[in-house]
Amino acid sequence: MQISNRLAGFSLSQADMLRRAMGKKDAAEMAKQKIKFMEGAAENKHPKAVAGNIFDLMAKFAEYGFNKSHSAAYALLAYHTAYLKTHYPVEFMAALLTSETSKPENVVKYISECREMNIPVVPPDVQFSNEKFTPIQTENGEAIGFGLAAIKNVGLNAIDSIIAARKNLKKEGRQGFASLWEFCEKVDLRLLNKRVLESLIKAGAMDAFGSRAQMAAALDKAMERAQKAQKDAAAGQHGLFGIFDDGPATSSNSNEDALPQVPEWDEHTRLQNEKEVLGFFVSGHPMDKYREKLRNMKVVDTATACEMKPEPQTFRRGRSEEPTNEIQIAGVITGLKVAKSKRSGEFYAQATLEDTVGKIELIAFPQAYEKLAEKLKIDVPVLVRGALRGEEDSAPKLAVSSIQALEDVKLKLPDSLRIKVPLHNPDSALLEKLQTILLSAPGKGRLLLDLEEPGEFCAVLEPHNLLVAADRLFIDQIEELVGRGGVRVID
User: Fold this and answer.
1) CA 159 to CA 150: how far, in whole Å?
2) Is the model's pTM score more than 0.70?
């Protein structure tokens, strides 16, 4: 702003307009501003070439430049961050997760990063979890304890009550709550209502007491017993030394303390409940069972897709053109919304596709929505095919062209493959291991074995009545024996 003020005679208001145009990268406005700048510089008798060069330097700097004080502050912050992450990785990641508690998608991302750093993140547990993500010591070394504040409906007062109850047990020389019944009796149920307790159960924070389905079924009874016990205890404190009171109810090992015998929640229900109260899955992911299947398919994950360059067309709501340059992403569809296009009056849909590493927005234009309306409602893992669409400065969306349940996707495995078997001592042991793998993967793929002694000979064998299913796991197992690149798929 000072440059334009002193060099071209801009007022501070005019200089600010130039700054805004640069910040927004508005090419048309920048062209107008350059004319004014050059005219002002000429009036102040500055050489045209010098003024033009200075304006171009300012414009280039505005693309992504910082002054020295700003750059120094960022550099120091980057150094501190790198130092802490290198020398105190558990503490650093715990603090990072705590700072992102309100953004489930970022919590998922950083928990994945913890896994890559070999830092376990222990699921929430009322026996030891605190309000925030906290470094803890486990039998297997350092880990991060999940913060209870990340559970929906669980407020700070409820967490303080749980921690206070744990401290009281510790004073009695005990470590943790013995049962659901005792937990309800020891915490302040004025702060932990049924909704809070249900959220703790759904999040898996009370798994130490039994199955989630059993605790959900016993919750009303446990709360009723605990409320009576707490009421009796409060009355005893103000009575005539409690001589007329029966005393507070205490936990026992009687049959009354047994949890009801009910079927455990199936995997889908358990995971959906976790997603409801945490915003993501903890004890597993609906995609886990398809991990090996996906290795054999040409799919990209959501994180990779969001980094890819979308098609050059401008994204417009209601567009109905057929997408090109399609990719495939596997995940779970959530947040489906159907609306009517103002432009055409036809219905289209928007949703989110989530996988184990993140999520991407979906858009089903009218032509696609007409065909895929029912498939968009599928609540199990699906394979979505489409093209990336988006504007330059926004996250891309996947324009959907087809949807198929992953369970129904049939893999196209190689029709034939060739395995190069090096003949080194002990040859018999190698061949026995190879035979075990081949017999354990029956399929329809033809097999050729190149028995090779480098520099000596190569014998090609085609085993009779031995056809294999050559998926990625099979190929990896074979290459562990014969060496990387020892398996060649024949088209």
Assistant:
1) 11
2) no
